[in-house]
Amino acid sequence: MAQIREFRVADTVKVKKGSDINVRRPYENTKPYATKLDSNAGDLKRSPKFHEGIVGQIKKVYGWISIPPDHSKRTSYYQVAFNLSDISEKATSKDKVYVDVFEDWLERAPRSEL
Questions:
Q1: What is the pLDDT of residues 58-89, one digit of tens each?
Q2: Strand order in the sheet with 73-83
């Protein structure tokens, strides 16, 4: 059975807020997250915090990857370009930052935010 990707190259997307996704940040003492001892706690997927709520554009589709610890979950993975000026006041409008993002962290950007 073929899996259908939600997004394509050049699509405009928005990264969901951390409260809307199950994410683990190793520098935060947040629980629960999945371990071999407690596989029901959640996913081991990681995400930087600075791009939450920011609109970007899909630049590359990597396809599906396996997620530890059980490798049975598969999700699409994308390279997304963000305007660095949306993240840092010191950046110019020409500066970009590229982040690899899992599909379930993304949503279509509302027209009001384009």
A1: 999 988 776 665 555 667 889 999 999 999 99
A2: 96-102, 73-83, 55-67, 12-15, 106-108
Residue type, 39: S
The residue count for the chain:
114
- How many Å apart are CA 83 and CA 75, to the nearest integer? 25
- Could you write out the three-class secondary structure of the chain? CCCCCCCCCCCEEEECCHHHCCCECCCCCCCCCCCCCCCCCCCCCECCCCCCCCEEEEEEEEEEEEECCCCCEEEEEEEEEEEHHHCCCCCCCCCEEEEEEEHHHEEECCHHHC
Report d(CA 2, CA 19) in Å as an integer: 30
Q: Quick one: fold of 12-21+50-113?
A: SH3 type barrels. (2.30.30)
